[in-house]
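Lab manual, section 2.4: Encoding a predicted structure.

Procedure: take the sequence of the chain (355 residues), apply the prediction step described in section 2.3, and record the output as C-alpha cells. A sample record is shown.
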Amino acid sequence: MDYWLSILLGISWLVSVLSFLPAFDIQHWTFRIMDFIRLQVLGILIILLILLSIFSGTHFILETSTKIGLFAAIVYQLKVVLPYFPIGRKQNPKSSNAISLLSVNVLQKNTDYYRLIQRIRKVNPDIILTLESNKSWENALSEIERDYAFSHKAAKENRYGLHFYTRLEVKNCTGHELISAEHPSVEIELRDDQGNDFLFWGVHPPPPSPTEKPTSKQKDAELMAVAKRIRSSQLPVIVSGDFNNVCWSRSSKLFTKITDLIDARIGRGFHGSFPVRPRIFRFPIDLLFHSESIKIHSIKTLEDIGSDHLPLYSIFSVPKNEDAAKSKPISKETKEIVQDMIREGKKVAPEENID
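Recorded output:
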C-alpha cells in the first residue's frame, strides 16, 4: 500500500504544481498548455483528492499537506472556470431582427466538403466564417454562393485561409494581415434588415504549441492589434473565429479589457469545440465576443463535419442605431503592455505585417 500511496502522493504534487503554471506571465507553450486543459485538470485534481481521502497511510503530515495542495489547486481552477458554468445567465428572447452566425474551422485536409454544406443548408445562417479553408474549400463552397450575396475570400495553403459569406448588406469590407502576411483576418461593416449597423471581425491567430509557435507571442500580438482597432470603433462589435486561445486565458481577459467586449460563453456553458475526439479532452478555443449592446440569444456547437473542430453557431441581435458607448479608460501601463505585446509578436512573425 505504501508503494502505491507514494505514487499517488507524487502524482498529486505534480498535478497541483502544474495547475498553477498559467498564473505566471510566461508565454512559452509549456506554460500556456495548462490554460487549455483546465477543466480536465480540475477533474483529475478532484479524483486525486477523493483517492487520498479513501486511501491513507502512516505519513500524516505529508498526506495532509498534499490534500491541502490539491484543495488549493481545485479552488484556483474553480475561480477561473466557474463564471462559464451555465448558471445565472438568462437567455435573451429571440428578436425580429435576430442574426445567425456559423463560425467553423474546417480543417484544411478535410475533403468531406458536403457535410459542411449540408450543415449550412440545415441551419441557414446569415453569416458564415470558415477558417483553414484553402482553394479546394473555396471551390467546394462556391455551391452556397447563390444563397449569399457577398463573399470575402482569403484562400491559403498554410492552414490559415479564411472565407466569409453573408446575405446581409455589406457597407465596407477590409482584409487584414496585422502581424504576418501568413495569417489573415477580416473586418466587415454590416447592416441588418432593420437598418442597424454593426462591425464583424473574423480572426485566426497561430497557437503556441510544439508543432506551431514555441510561444504565444504572435497570437497575443494579433489579438491586441485587433483589440486596438475595435476600441476605436463607433459601432457595436462582434468577434468570432478560432482564437487558438481559451476564453479564460490571460490574453483573452486583456482582449476584453481593451475592447470592452463580453465573452458570450459567460454564464452559458463551456461549449468545447476542439478537439472533436476524444470528447473528454475538448476545450473552448472557437470564441465569440460582443459589445454589451448586442444581445446573444443562443450559442452552441453543432455536429461533427469531419474537422478537428466543431462548428460554433450563435444567434444575436443588434440594437437600434444609437451613439456608441464610450470605451472605458485604460491605464498608461496597460497601453504599454499592449504595445509591447504587438512589438514582440512582429519580431517572431515569419513575415513583416502589411497593415
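Check your result against the sample. The CA atoms of residues 246 and 285 lie 5 Å apart.
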